[in-house]
């Protein structure tokens, strides 16, 4: 087992982790980015289609839209930070530093509109905005002398001492390294692996949330799991159909060819995501399918990347794109303050891993990249001062005892158990939940966690630790959902079915 030290350790390489690394590097810190991704497709940010929202000239209206989409559960103070800093951080980092070429309409930037936005305020690059941002971001960081990027590297455990975090145990191709850091920033992305269908890339097991929770950090709003309403799940490789397509006029039709969203919400296809997702699922159950009709717009001209995805996957978009809801984003996570600081000293969280309070019960479209950028910069800047006043004396810190790595034997065990976990989450902790189902889910997940913990005690492997993280995070979601008896946003409770004998 080897050792290394760094000022700031960033775990994750999406826009939030990259922004944190950028701010820390600008502050003169030595930064190590550890990411399980192999660039660039392995990070969630790469897959973001719609774009990044900014305030333009009306911060108050942007704030009102965010609060309304959240069902008035978002933290107004956190939303103020987001909308007040949106224009400047996008200009500084994306347009001037990375020179991202956002789409233009003549000489002006082309702003799009998406569900629950009252204005056209979304900057985009076709339907591949995440890719257009993420690739140059990583290239820019890699060119800096004080930033090291370790790919295909997984964090197994946080290193703790006297109630503080001093880095993490990292695994790379079977080798384990103790990486000590003055400040540690978790930016591990979402929870897509917990559900059978998700817009996330592979490997999103909620690792940051699980590691932080096991280290004693507070978590909140874990029940608020957002499902994107328009994901082409019938394709060879399922893909998300951006909200921007509906913003440009596409409509949803059920298996009978009828447009149905006006019956569910006054804003029809541009209603909040949780409303559209449940409506799509309801119509699929009633009529067998739902298709996104793109004929009202020039789909090929406006969204050539999506046209290519359709063609690659054998989908004829002229007949409508078959869509269904799939897990997309968790609104809760590690509780952090305005600087991304968790309740455990020296430990930060940013991006989807964090619960900043911006999203509440439901996230407004195209605010995910923006939140990651704003809080990533804030956390990275703050982490520099923490790292400089917290010298890492590695000789006084005991690292977690990990067994010799066993990369082969546990893999099938992990795959089988993860499949079981996904079944539990899809059945009882999905778009609609019942009190009975949530209790049943917790029983199944606790039993599963016990089996996983027993196995982890006998060997070490990436797949086992990712499975452990998945079970911890899934349990946190199910527990939070059961404890919240009020349907809000993405947490939607229905009555338990009557027992057979009473029907």
TrEMBL record:
Pathway: Cofactor biosynthesis; NAD(+) biosynthesis; iminoaspartate from L-aspartate (oxidase route): step 1/1
SUPFAM superfamilies xrefs: FAD/NAD(P)-binding domain, Succinate dehydrogenase/fumarate reductase flavoprotein C-terminal domain, Succinate dehydrogenase/fumarate reductase flavoprotein, catalytic domain
Alphabetical GO biological process terms: NAD+ biosynthetic process
Domain annotation FAD-dependent oxidoreductase 2 FAD-binding: ranges: 7-369
InterPro entries named in the record: FAD-dep_OxRdtase_2_FAD-bd (IPR003953), FAD/NAD-bd_sf (IPR036188), Fum_R/Succ_DH_flav-like_C_sf (IPR037099), NadB (IPR005288), Succ_DH/fumarate_Rdtase_cat_sf (IPR027477)
Enzyme class: oxidoreductase
Cofactor(s) annotated in UniProt: FAD
GO MF terms, alphabetically ordered: L-aspartate oxidase activity
Pfam families named among the record's database cross-references: FAD_binding_2
Keywords tagged on the record: FAD, Flavoprotein, Oxidoreductase, Pyridine nucleotide biosynthesis
Keyword Isomerase: no
EC code: 1.4.3.16
Family from the record: Belongs to the FAD-dependent oxidoreductase 2 family. NadB subfamily.
Protein name stated in the entry: L-aspartate oxidase
Organism: Halanaeroarchaeum sulfurireducens
